[in-house]
């Protein structure tokens, strides 16, 4: 049942990505990157089961958050 919940979450986040794709501006870009971050966390925690190991999810999501912040910063420039 947990995988079904994660799959439905990914479907909802994909719908949000599609809806945000037509909105211009840096705020929409930040929202798109936030949705991408949430998708990555859902995949890492749900399908790859990194949430069960101590520190593994943080080891992947902290660099991901830094990378997405850098991408957003480049978009704003």
From TrEMBL:
<dbReference type="InterPro" id="IPR005171">
    <property type="entry name" value="Cyt_c_oxidase_su4_prok"/>
</dbReference>
<keyword id="KW-1003">Cell membrane</keyword>
<feature type="signal peptide">
    <location>
        <begin position="1"/>
        <end position="21"/>
    </location>
</feature>
<dbReference type="GO" id="GO:0005886">
    <property type="term" value="C:plasma membrane"/>
</dbReference>
<keyword id="KW-0732">Signal</keyword>
<protein>
    <submittedName>
        <fullName>Cytochrome c oxidase subunit IV</fullName>
    </submittedName>
</protein>
<keyword id="KW-0472">Membrane</keyword>
<feature type="transmembrane region" description="Helical">
    <location>
        <begin position="58"/>
        <end position="75"/>
    </location>
</feature>
<keyword id="KW-1133">Transmembrane helix</keyword>
<dbReference type="Pfam" id="PF03626">
    <property type="entry name" value="COX4_pro"/>
</dbReference>
<keyword id="KW-0812">Transmembrane</keyword>
């Amino acid at each position: 049942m947990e995988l079904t919940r994660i799959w439905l979450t990914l479907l909802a986040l994909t719908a949000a990505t599609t809806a945000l794709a037509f909105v211009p501006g840096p705020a929409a870009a930040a929202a798109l990157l936030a949705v991408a971050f949430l998708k990555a966390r859902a995949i890492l925690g749900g399908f790859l089961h990194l949430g069960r190991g101590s520190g593994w999810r943080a080891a992947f999501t902290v660099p991901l958050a830094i990378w997405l912040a850098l991408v957003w910063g480049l978009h704003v420039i």
